[in-house]
Design goal:
The complex is a heterotrimer.
Chain A (H helix, E strand, L loop, with lengths): L12 H16 L6 H26 L7 H15 L10 H24 L5 H19 L10 H8 L1 E2 L2 E2 H19 L1 H18 L4 H27 L11 H11 L10 H21 L3 H19 L12
Antiparallel strand pairs in A: 1-2
Helix pairs in contact in A: 1-11, 1-12, 2-7, 2-8, 2-9, 2-10, 2-11, 3-4, 3-5, 3-9, 4-5, 4-9, 6-9, 7-8, 8-9, 10-11, 11-12
Chain B lengths: L6 H23 L12 E5 L5 H16 L4 E5 L4 H13 L6 E4 L4 H13 L3 E5 L8 H4 L4 E7 L1 H15 L4 E7 L5 H16 L3 E8 L4 H15 L3 E6 L2 H13 L8 E2 L5 H9 L5 E4 L1 H17 L9 H4 E4 L1 E4 L19 H6 L5 E4 L7
Parallel strand pairs in B: 1-2, 1-3, 3-4, 4-5, 5-11, 6-7, 6-8, 8-9
Antiparallel strand pairs in B: 10-12, 11-13
Helix pairs in contact in B: 2-11, 3-4, 6-7, 8-9
Chain C lengths: L5 E10 L2 E11 L4 E6 L5 H9 L6 E6 L2 E3 L4 H6 L2 E4 L11 H5 L8 E2 L2 E2 L1 H14 L15 H13 L9 E5 L8 H14 L3 E6 L3 H7 L2 E6 L2 E7 L5 H9 L18 E10 L3 E9 L3 E6 L5 H9 L4 E8 L2 E2 L5 H6 L2 E4 L3 H5 L6 H6 L3 H4 L8 H14 L16 H13 L6 E5 L7 H16 L3 E5 L3 H7 L2 E6 L2 E6 L9 H8 L1
Parallel strand pairs in C: 3-10, 3-11, 6-9, 9-10, 15-20, 15-21, 18-19, 19-20
Antiparallel strand pairs in C: 1-2, 1-4, 4-5, 7-8, 11-12, 13-14, 13-16, 16-17, 21-22
Classes of the chains: A mainly alpha, B alpha/beta, C alpha/beta.
């Protein structure tokens, strides 16, 4: 059985899977390949991509951050309450940003410290932070959903430059920044080392704990950024804005090759996975698949995409986690 | 666990701990165990505290509870029927004779289970929205299941459908956004819309998707649909307000807000404002406060003996509450309407529990 | 007294009741190569670790270049010019060679957390050139072979040269135990080259290496320095005696009782994936087949193929008169085939579990009631018996297996396979790697005993000595095939030249 493709990059499987899906849907869906639709896919992917940048570093280190939904919701409702809105008289973008991003920073810091110093498994810490943040967001919800009146703020989402909203450009910037950190800074590179063999890194004299805390702070702040951008996109401060963001982010990362066991993958790989998921969702819509079986088909397509994407990684004795 | 932190981190830590304990307390409020009480407990269940409609229900229920000097306990399901089964199950099994419970079981699957547990504990329960068609209060748990209250989904679908028909001048393809597949409100509202389509034959369905009642999901779906159908989209029929808002946001991205009419259902105040501004055509306003108050009062009345359960008719045990279609024509009377607790005291409602009823629930409405 | 570049006096180190070092004094002269030999547990590793800053001594002093020093860590020692080339691979597998070389050093190309890749790679290239290692510095370490990684470890230490004015002191902790002979030659060539500007101490089990390379040799035993010899004034027998405390045995397989002629394993034109084969050979019951060859000659592939790890692409195998086509290790085990892999830490044992757990893990069902419910008592009894027979040295069977010395770990892994009631054929891939001569002798004795009881054994030998000492039949491998087979060597013993000629 030799389907081995020898390429300079280790695993281009997911990328090929993505291209194959795009081709497939272009041929079978009526308007899939139109500019308008491709723009729609990019717009829908923008916010999850931002979340996944932060999540990638965490996963590469071999840990996990389940709290992103809670932090996104919290940041979203905070923003909705402090820019000009329908419920109170606050009108300060600066304050809104400060508080929203600050909440992400603080909670991310909390996650990192409890994980790195108190040695609580990241799964547990971030699970707790998720619920706590969600609870906080709910507490902040006034009796009715605050509608955002600040037109300048909303223009991030509404104004288009070359057909794409400001949110997409934000996402692009963040991705680029993330790539720079990943490839050219100690934190980026050593994160792989930590995921590969943490003890060796410590023995080599590296400040492993500091780096662990740092990536959780990244993830927290980026989740908050998602919350802020979502409030512009939705036009309201929603304390449930983060719902449903966790699964596509983590599975996107894993599908793209950023494995939960750590030490593998990266931002570009995670993005590929997120795009695969969004392409599948959108493509099935364009084909006109019966909505009742959409979920089933989505799940099946994901499995095939993953199998196809990791075909050349199969080894009889390899452990899949 | 001792670990050394620089001093300034300590302050942050304490602050975080305080915030977290407040959050924890809040969450645990929803988990109050049953009090072995001389006074029966009042347990009102809502889906989430982040919803205007749910908050309104709590306001109504609280007005009744306050007027009889009893504490109101609020339980939150977070859209998980399993959670209500557990929470209410715990309350009932701890001993709850004559205490009253009102909630939406989230899905048909949990209705009978919750009612059975109430029955075994001799508690009085009223359910909303989700009930399997083949069971009723009078034949399943006649002493305990006081009533099932709902809002007429078919009516909502029909009236909103007609409003949409009018807004598109009777002709054109529309997008349909449904809730969660197999939910009774989902099926009822769509059935109502189909009835409207019969009377408005040139209004056709371009595409029909399940957006699970969610704002973001609806936005993503409509984005894709706009890319697919482009100019063919003449209108959007959404089974609830949140999805309507999501659809509107997608339309706004293309500069189509206000040009492509959208309908919703629920009567959220932000949607009312959008009706006034013309970006949304109509919504079905359901009075959450009335639901909360009427259900609480009715259950309380039965528990205390003021109302004789055996004398109630079927229509009094399974009924719809009134709802109003809000359009630009009548939106002003609903904007900024303040909640008046005096309208919802137990004493006031005792006079006629069914003033807000619009009639009995008819089975097979979806056929 | 010449001024030694590095001298230790009266070092003592205890771990609880165990005395690892007992008043040890050694010295290292400038540009000298000193070898440390001794059995496992003799203290040579402890001595080197203390000298390199891994652990502080309980008492005694370290004098580096005439000044007394105390090292807080290996990084501290490195900053003073004492570098340790680890046995246990200190390289982070997920990072590139370049990053690993400079990981414990602050340098201008990694400043404030910012990498200047071009300079980093150039600097790494320079270090690699010092040892003539021709690999791209941006290769990930996990892609390298063991031998290449060892060289990178050396480069990592040599990189200290740029930061220290004096000559370095470089310590090698058993650098050759996992290397092929070609890699060993390369390493020794490099060591000879760098001795002109460094002073070197190295540990090895292999006496021939120690004798080839060192100027001077210290022999350790039971935590004490028992002897010091100059090169040329000692031979391997004397060293063996000093180390082990007894004469080297020269047991051969003469005078054995007549062995079975019933074939157990018959290979007929068998090929395995990746150009291994065709193989045709017969192994009888109770026979020991020794395989020997250069790296990649096919010996390892043959074993893995017989165990079901690599796929068989053509030919027939007959095991105990029934056809045998192992598709997975499970198939092989079910037919009574066992496999002791070369890298026991990765593939053979579960570190963190006790010796007993390791031994009873694979074959619990053989002892279980009805094949399901564990029969602990019988398991333990039999495991204990095997541990005794194989002479596994451990305070208790419940000790964490990773705390045992290499030789004893190997014996425990062997014991695990012997627990299988159905064992017919045992495959051993480089079983003596990392074993000191005493442990190796024990292992060979056990293997002979097992063969006498009817077990068939196929093993891949590391040296000519081994293969001639233990086997009944020697199969020399070359380019993925049998190049020559010498059967019944107790009667027709091939010369070393004959074997080597068949190897190359």
């Amino acid at each position: 059985m030799s389907l081995k493709i020898t390429l300079p990059i280790r695993n281009t499987g997911p990328l090929i899977a993505l291209l194959a899906l795009v081709v497939f849907f272009s041929l079978t869906g009526s308007n899939f390949a139109s500019i308008a639709n491709l723009v729609a896919i990019i717009e829908s992917s923008a916010v999850p991509c931002i979340a996944v940048v932060g999540l990638t570093f965490v996963i590469v280190q071999g840990s996990i951050d389940l709290s992103i939904e809670g932090l996104v919701s919290l940041a979203c409702i905070i923003t909705g309450l402090f820019v000009a809105n329908s419920v109170n008289t606050h009108d300060s973008e600066g304050l809104a940003l400060l508080l929203a991003l600050g909440s992400g920073l603080v909670l991310g810091l909390f996650n990192g410290i409890v994980y790195a110093k108190a040695k609580v498994p990241s799964l547990i810490v971030t699970l707790g932070t998720w619920f706590a943040a969600r609870g906080l967001a709910t507490m902040l919800f006034p009796s009715m959903q605050p509608q955002i009146h600040d037109v300048a703020f909303l223009s991030i989402a509404l104004n288009k430059h070359f057909g794409l909203s400001g949110i997409v450009y934000c996402a692009a910037l963040i991705v680029l920044a993330g790539l720079v950190v990943e490839r050219r800074t100690t934190i980026g590179r050593v994160s792989y080392g930590i995921g590969g063999d943490e003890n060796l890194c410590r023995l080599g004299g590296l400040h492993v704990d500091r780096m662990k805390i740092a990536v959780f702070v990244f993830s927290g702040v980026l989740s908050a950024v998602c919350g802020v951008l979502l409030s512009a996109q939705l036009g309201v401060g929603s304390s449930q804005a983060g719902e449903g963001l966790l699964f596509p982010s983590i599975s996107g990362a894993v599908i793209g090759g950023t494995l939960l066991s750590g030490g593998r993958g990266g931002i570009l790989q995670s993005l590929t996975g997120v795009l695969i998921l969004n392409v599948i969702q959108n493509g099935l819509l364009q084909i006109g698949v019966d909505p009742l079986i959409t979920q089933v088909v989505e799940g099946a397509t994901i499995i095939f995409a993953v199998i196809g994407g990791s075909w050349n990684l199969r080894e009889k004795m390899r452990v899949a986690k | 666990m001792k670990f050394s932190l620089p001093r300034f981190n300590r302050r942050r830590q304490v602050a975080i701990k305080r915030v977290l304990s407040v959050a924890l307390v809040t969450i645990s409020v929803a988990h109050l165990p049953a009090v072995a009480a001389k006074v029966p407990g009042i347990y009102y269940g809502i889906a989430t505290e982040s919803s205007e409609y749910c908050n309104a229900q709590v306001q109504g229920a609280k007005a009744v509870a306050d007027s009889v000097n009893t504490k109101l306990n609020v339980l939150v399901s977070e859209f998980q029927g399993q959670k209500f089964l557990q929470d209410y199950g715990a309350i009932f099994s701890a001993g709850c004779k004559d205490c009253v419970a009102m909630m939406d079981p989230v899905s048909n699957a949990f209705t009978k289970a919750i009612v059975d547990r109430a029955s075994r504990a001799d508690a009085k329960v009223i359910t909303f929205w989700n009930r399997p068609e083949n069971i009723h209060p009078w034949d399943t748990a006649p002493q305990s299941w006081v009533a099932h209250i709902s809002f007429d989904g078919v009516d909502s679908g029909y009236q909103n459908g007609m409003a949409l028909c009018k807004a598109i001048d009777g002709t054109g393809g529309v997008l349909v956004l449904q809730g969660v597949a197999d939910n009774p409100p989902t099926k009822q509202r769509f059935a109502g819309f189909q009835r409207a389509m019969k009377e408005c034959p040139r209004m056709t369905i371009l595409d029909n998707q399940y957006a699970d009642w969610g704002q973001t999901k609806a936005q993503t779906i409509v984005r894709g649909q706009l890319a697919k159908y482009g100019e063919k989209v003449k209108g959007v029929f959404s089974e609830n307000d949140l999805m309507a808002l999501g659809a509107l946001a997608a339309l706004r991205e293309k500069g189509l807000a206000g040009k492509v009419p959208v309908t919703g259902s629920d009567g959220q105040s932000d949607v009312l404002r959008l009706i006034k501004s013309g970006e949304i055509v109509s919504t079905m306003k359901v009075d959450g406060a009335a639901l909360g108050a009427v259900s609480t009062a009715l259950a309380y009345g039965v528990a205390t003996g003021d109302i004789d359960l055996t004398k109630l008719t079927h229509a009094q045990r399974s009924f719809y509450l009134k709802q109003t279609l809000v359009t630009k024509a009548n939106v002003d009377q609903f904007l900024d309407k303040k909640f008046d607790p005096s309208q919802f005291t137990y004493q006031k409602l005792k006079g006629d529990m069914w003033t807000y009823s619009s009639g009995p629930i008819t089975d097979s409405a979806t056929k | 007294m010449t001024d030694a570049v590095y001298e230790v006096k009266g070092l003592t180190k205890r771990f609880g009741p165990v005395t690892a070092l007992d008043d040890v004094s050694v010295r290292l002269e400038r540009n000298e190569i000193v070898g440390l030999i001794g059995q496992n547990g003799s203290g040579k590793s402890s001595l080197m670790k203390t000298m390199a800053g891994v652990q502080p001594p309980d008492s005694g002093s370290l004098i580096l270049r005439g000044k007394q020093v105390i090292f807080k860590s290996t990084v501290d020692a490195a900053s003073r010019g004492v570098g340790l080339v680890h046995q246990e691979q200190s390289l982070v597998p997920n990072l590139t060679i370049a990053e690993n070389i400079f990981i414990d050093k602050s340098a201008s190309f990694v400043r404030h957390g910012w990498y200047r890749w071009r300079e980093l790679l150039e600097a790494a290239r320079r270090q690699l050139d010092k040892i003539e290692l021709d690999i791209q510095p941006d290769t990930l370490v996990e892609r390298l072979s063991f031998g290449q990684r060892q060289m990178v470890e050396l480069a990592k230490v040599l990189a200290l040269e740029e930061m220290i004015e004096d000559d370095l002191v470089i310590m090698f902790d058993e650098p050759t135990s996992m290397l092929t002979s070609r890699e060993i030659d390369d390493l020794f060539k490099q060591i000879s080259r760098i001795r002109a500007r460094a002073s070197i101490v190295f540990i090895s089990h292999r006496m021939d290496e120690v004798l080839t390379l060192s100027d001077r040799v210290y022999v350790m035993s039971d935590g004490r320095r028992v002897a010091e010899r100059m090169r040329g004034k000692v031979d391997s027998d004397e060293l063996y005696e000093l180390m082990v405390g007894k004469q080297r045995s020269t047991v051969t397989r003469e005078n054995e009782a007549p062995r079975s002629t019933k074939p157990r394993l018959v290979l007929n034109d068998v090929r395995f994936a990746a150009d291994a084969g065709p193989f045709s050979i017969t192994v009888n019951e109770g026979e020991i087949l020794g395989l020997i060859g250069v790296q990649r000659s096919g010996a390892e592939m043959l074993c893995r193929g017989l165990f079901g790890i690599d796929e068989m692409t053509s030919g027939q195998i007959v095991l105990d008169s029934k056809p045998f086509q192992p598709r997975t290790p499970t198939d092989a085990v079910r037919r009574g085939v066992g496999y002791v892999p070369a890298e026991r830490k990765k593939e053979g044992m579960l570190a963190g579990m006790s010796v007993l757990e390791n031994m009873t893990l694979s074959f619990a069902f053989d002892y279980a009631f009805g094949g399901v419910v564990a029969n602990r008592r019988e398991e333990h009894w039999i495991a204990t018996d095997w541990a005794r027979r194989l002479k596994v040295k451990t305070p208790s069977l419940h000790e964490d297996i990773s705390k045992l010395s290499g030789g004893n770990q190997q014996k425990a892994v062997l014991g695990k396979w012997l627990m299988g009631k159905n064992l017919r054929l045992l495959l051993l891939d480089h079983p003596t790697r990392g074993l000191d001569p005493g442990a190796r002798a024990d292992l060979f004795e056990s293997m002979r005993n097992l063969a006498r009881e009817g077990l068939s054994i196929v093993f891949v030998a590391d040296t000519l000595d081994e293969v001639l000492e233990l086997s009944d039949t020697v199969a020399v491998m070359r380019d993925g095939q049998f190049s020559e087979v010498f059967s019944d060597i107790s009667r027709n013993r091939p010369t070393e030249e004959q074997i080597v000629r068949a190897m190359v």
